[in-house]
Amino acid sequence: MSTIDPETIHDVEGVPVHSVHRHDVIIVGAGLAGMRAAVEASDEFDVAVLSKVFPTRSHSGGAQGGIAASLANEEEDHWEWHMFDTVKGSDYLGDQDAIEIMVKEAPVVVREFEHYGTPFSRTPEGRIAQRKFGGHTKDFGRGGPILRACYAADRTGHALLHNLYEVCIKKEVRFYPEFYALSLIIRDNVCRGLVAWDVINGGVHVFHAKAVMFGTGGYGKVFEITSNALANTGDGLSLVLRAGLPLEDMEFVQFHPTGLYLQGILVSEAARGEGGYIINDKGERFMERYAPDKMELAPRDLVSRSIQTEINEGRGIGGEAYVYCDLRHLGEDAIMKKLPQIHELAWKFLHVDCTKEPIPIQPTAHYSMGGIPTNKDAQVLADGKERPVEGFYAAGECACVSVHGGNRLGTNSLLEASLFGRRAGKSMVRFLRGTREFPELPADAAKLAIKEIERFLSADGGERVADIREDLQGKMTDECGIFRSAEKLEAMVKDLGELEKRFEKIKIDDRSNKFNSDLLEAIELGHMLEFSELIVAGALKREESRGAHSRTDFPKRDDEKWLKHTLAWKKGDEITFDYKPVIITRFQPKERTY
Amino acid sequence: MATITFKINRFNPDDERRGHFMQKYQVEAKKGDTILDCLNRIKWKQDGSLTFRRSCRSGICGSCAMTIDGVNNLACEVQVMALKRDTITVEPLRGYTVIKDLVVSLDPLVKGMLKVKPYMITKTPPPTDQERLQSPEEREKLDGLYECILCGSCTSSCPSFWADKEYIGPHAFLKAYRFVADTRDEAPREHLEPLDDKHGLWRCHTIFNCVEACPKDLNPTKAISELKKALVNDKF
Fold this sequence. Notes:
- The complex is a heterodimer of chains A (594) and B (236).
- In chain A, helix 5 crosses helix 15, helix 13 packs antiparallel against helix 14 and helix 13 packs parallel to helix 15.
- Chain A contains 16 helices and 22 strands.
- With 594 residues, chain A is of the alpha/beta class.
- The radius of gyration of chain A is 23 Å and the shape is globular.
- The N and C termini of chain A lie far apart (52 Å).
- Chain B is of the alpha+beta class and 236 residues long.
- The interface between A and B is large, with 65 and 59 residues.
């Protein structure tokens, strides 16, 4: 543990000296990525974790079905098989060097969780139990679905998240719960810390650090129907943009096939992994028309498009915008033992007893494949390609390594978050061992953040934040959702311009400092509008269909032109693009059928 | 559709002289709406200053625990129509210090938890390249224990906590028992000892409020009686 010498704490204009903190490592986000990194780095260094919500409220806890690893506890499996499935699932946009690291280290990471105390479900032999999940197969796709997803009933994310919090407590990691990051302090390509808002008491704080890590999560809340938490507003992404850094592959947004109708709340893929059917108004298991081989266990992009097509063509239940997920044939025992949370959610939110009735479901915005470009050691890349920003790291959903490419396989997200969180921790430890000095803290470090707070706290226009946000969500769903086209996306570009103009005229009801969630929602909306521009612009540029990005005007994948990653910057009102090649090692792109 | 009157117990920390007061809001609610949906609608359409915690809206994050018509629950899990009332009273969880409106300080919750060493303690190193073995029957003992979402409903409902803010609390007892019951934990005594305290286990008088209050249908009282048994066995 390094000691803090108050004499050397710098003055920051506009911030009282007791609100300037210093830690070797500052991590933003207390989900799986952030807390796993904290666990790794806290043995040697002084680590603090900042989170906009109390740590166990992080949305990693919403993950249900499992964490992928080729443990082969239930049947033969190999990391090479897992690698093939991930590459194919990504529609060949995933970087294969990063994927190889992930699938090889997966068993280590999962067993470590077990050693930490995660209450995994067990096989009769007492090993970690594994189940089937979409896109995970035997023998390089030649065999059927494989038992690879390690699970704790259907509360895997919750079990892992709470377990990591417990380990953080044991290791005495310092938490700043309910602190909201406002801006990064990066000068001359060196990250020096960040500025944050104390939600409970109000007030701007500065965190001076040798290393900063983002594990800030995804951005499902820009869509109307989403499985994401209200907190998932992608703040970290536009903080990175505002620091002049690029984002990668933002056009790739995953829609999960089974969200509870109208609520969007997740019905885990475990429902299908355990044998659930998806049926339309005619009672057909329509996946046989779209993925005759893997049926309901095809990857998410494909199943979501199939459901949406059924709905668009009038075969939703009673012609409405939903179909059924039917579990009844699994029997009450299996449902209550293996899918208890799904039973609870369907009952509490739709009053459907899924042992007796099918569950109304519709696709729901679920996961962002793109994000902050990093290398395999979780270092954020200043040019998006090679040159790291000194002392700045990212992992989990906010980052783009890229292991998921155009479409993530279920259970690879918990894996990626914890595995690359762990790598970020190790990477920071290596960096800190060679870094004795804190980087200089600029006196005007908090200037922009203070201005932003002041601007919002005095905002007195006529527009309500929620109205603009609702319009954004509705339009993003219609014009930048599961099916996209130039026409729709161009309309969305225009709509975003108008929404941004309205955003300049917002009004805040709550002008106080203490627990001002009205203020936070305004700041969040600013972030959402900002990075949505990149989702839409990237989607408009990419004239092909790949993974979750589906263009009705360009329905085919185009490897010749588009087997590459999008990098996008925002400079003033302009978006600039660059591209980088996909790293292909073992598996050459092939047509993707299931 | 129905018009529901929400009576909300509010508190503005910048206006302590006013103290707590009830404010009424009218909301149009339809079938399927939860209390959280309605609170959001008030905040988003009528009064942005109304303050409450919320995040996952699917009953797993534990943010939105509050007292709804006198009962502790998660706002995101309570269907408005199921209450069958045209006036619904919403208050902050009892027993905790109110920060603002429905937001309370969770410090006592964390403090209680820290006392029980809320993590697995092992003495022997784990097997290399393998998990520790645990039979399905042994694992089943953790069901009803590991699902806690730390929402604070149970401890807020407990008269022992009302009388003693240092009381460790049912949420922490449940956590302690989650490790005591785990065959992999090699130091149950380390979780048990802190409970043998004047702010500990013996202050539970089996009132069962915590069981009633838990939105996840967990049973802290049962965990407490198991812990009492374990402590007594350990002593005599």
